[in-house]
Each structure stands twice: as C-alpha cells, then as structure tokens.
Amino acid sequence: MDDKAKNKNRFLIQKEEELKKIEDMIAKTKIDIEEFKELNKTYNDKLDKEKMRNVVLNVRYNALVNKMKNEGAIFEIENRDFEIKEWENLHLNKEGRRYILKTAYGDTIYKFDDVIGECIGTLTSKNDFSFIVVRAEKHKLKVQFRIK
Question: Residue 23: in which H helix or E strand, if any?
Fold first, then answer.
C-alpha cells in the first residue's frame, strides 16, 4: 500500500471516529432534551399549583380585609398603669422588624409577635386603619383594630 492510500485510510478512520463522536453527542443531547422536557413539565405543574394557591390566598386575604373593614378586630392588652382613656387612638410604629402600639405620649403599650405583626403590617400598608381603645379597665385594655 502506498503512502497515498495509507493517508486516505487514516483520514477515513479519523472521520469515522469524529462522526461516531458527533452521533454520540446527538444521542446524549436528545436524552438531555427529554430530561429537560420532563423537568419543565414538573416545574410547570408546580407553577400551576402555586398559581391556584395564590388565587386561594388572595380570596382569603380579601375576605379578611372586608371583615376588618366591616367589623374590625378587638383584642385585650394588659394595662400596666397606662393613663389611657376610652376612645383614645393608639399609634402603630415599626421598630426593627416588630410592630408596636404606642400612646399619643409615646408610651409603648404592646409589641406584636412577628407573625401577627407581619399580618398587621401587610393590612396597614395598603389601607387606612385605626387602633382605638374601646374599654379601659384597671388591669386590661380592649383595643379595636379597624381598616377604613
């Protein structure tokens, strides 16, 4: 076999190896595409579930806002010798991550826990609101939270 034939044979072998590598890459890419399609379907299913959950949460949130607008919420606070009169307005302040009720004089009378504070923060950020002392007794205060 002459050099020309050897070179031609080597060239063909080299090209066949390259073709085999390309075919393997195509097969692997097809497998990857199918895996991504399955993964995409899984994520789309999760997204659909989250969208439904979001709709439900929005309905609940709007129901809560309407209830707060119509009825308000009354809760009791320990009265620690605060000089607060009935029908006095209280002020809601945020200190750090916590929401705090204060008197007109700046006395802190109540600190909301993180969960309730976050809910109140959400409700008050989008609506006009008030906190009013509806009953002032020696040891407890009844405060009404209302959205206007």
Answer: helix 3-70
